[in-house]
Amino acid sequence: MEQAGRQARIFDYAAHLPLPLPSLSISGFRGIEQLNIGRLGRVTLLAGRNGIGKTTVLDAVRLFSERGHLSSLASVLTRSEEVAERIGPDDKRSDIVSCEALFYGRMPVFGAAFSVGSSDQESQLRLELVELDDIPPESAERLRKLMADGPVLRATFRDFVGYLPALIDYDEQRFAFGSRWTSRRRFGESDWPTPLNYFSLGPGLLANWELDRLWGDIALTPSEPLALNALQLASDLGVEGVAVVPGPSRYSSRRVVVKLASGQRVPLKSLGDGATRLFSVAAALGSSTNGFLLIDEAENGIHHSLQKEYWKFIIRTAADNDVQVVATTHSWDCVSGFANAARELDSAGAVLLRLERSRDEAIRAVEYAGDDLEVAVEQRIEVR
């Protein structure tokens, strides 16, 4: 009874916290010409057939959370291998990332733009392709020193206006990922709006160095027990502790190990993909307070019998930690587990969206929440 009362208090509290994105509007971004979603939840699950644009929605939310910083643009493009070879005036060859792939149709002209944000026009991030001569002299001078003449991205967010090169040096950006402030100083990004806190989980398992970073974010904080609680779902061996230790050789990454009830110390990844995925989700929820957790193919690594408990954990923790979760799936087991978790927790903040194409080929979102979500599962409405 006491636990039920605590759950109600958590969800009542979370219901009154403003979401970073209560709605979503995407225009002219990658494969999405226009998409309007009237409501996002505290936890939103996107379903729909492959290629419909689910991952593109996650990319759009990521750019919004980063306020269009250069590192986020480059990361989105390099993840999808949008890299080409460029020959400079001295015949020197270099790999570049061209921002043209960010625009719908992939053939932008000057004046082309894409925007991401809430339906409220005042909270939209907009990036427009402009000529170098059309921007303020001080910004043009800074960019000309780095890229000579070339197209420029003009970024606007509320009252802020900033400028970025539309051709990004791939090698330098890879180096800049480790020290994002370096990139921001070079292009004047240190004056940009502060990014929102976020973490992005892809379809695959995190590398050891990424797990190390995540654990470092939550170790010895109130969020540390989240990781242990999540591991209890995936393993019946009794996980009692987590630590990060050096790798087996001086050339390998540090790795996460867990202490079992038997006293053994074993690598986290030896417990299987499910344990590693749950640990990653829990640690990411703990480190993304007041921001976003983005999960692509949320079902990956999670056994179908765990889907309901998995989503109950995410819904509870997102509410408790003030995190907005946006995830994708093409698994019916995942959709069913999500719906059953939302029903058991009586969570109005859990929203299922099916992306589909209308007769005119435009992408639209069909919402299932509350009673509609339950009916969708009971009648096995096609949401994949």
Brief synopsis:
This protein is an alpha+beta fold and 384 residues long. Helices cover 35% and strands 26% of the residues.
Distance between the termini: 37 Å
- Main β-sheet: number of strands, strand sense, barrel status? 6 strands, antiparallel
Strand order of the largest sheet: 2-1-6-7-8-9
Q: What share of residues are in beta strands?
A: 25-35%
Q: Mean pLDDT, nearest integer?
A: 84
Number of helix segments? 12
Can you describe what's shown?
- With 384 residues, this protein is an alpha+beta fold.
- It is 35% helix and 26% strand.
- It is built from 12 helices and 18 strands.
- A 6-stranded antiparallel sheet has the order 2-1-6-7-8-9. Strands 11-15-16-3-17-18 form a 6-stranded mixed sheet, sandwiched between helices.
- The two termini are 37 Å apart.
- Residues 1-13 and 173-183 have low confidence and may be disordered.
Main attributes of the structure:
six-stranded mixed sheet; 384 residues; disordered N terminus; alpha+beta; 26% strand; 35% helix; 12 helices; six-stranded antiparallel sheet
Topology:
Elements (H helix, E strand, L loop, with lengths): L1 H14 L8 E6 L2 E6 L5 E5 L6 H13 L3 H10 L3 E5 L5 E6 L14 E5 L6 E7 L6 H11 L4 E6 L2 E6 L1 E3 H7 L3 H7 L11 E4 L6 H11 L5 H11 L4 E7 L9 E6 L4 E3 L5 H15 L4 E4 L11 H15 L2 E5 L3 H14 L4 E8 L5 E7 L1 H8 L6
Parallel strand pairs: 3-16, 3-17, 11-15, 15-16
Antiparallel strand pairs: 1-2, 1-6, 4-5, 5-10, 6-7, 7-8, 8-9, 12-13, 13-14, 17-18
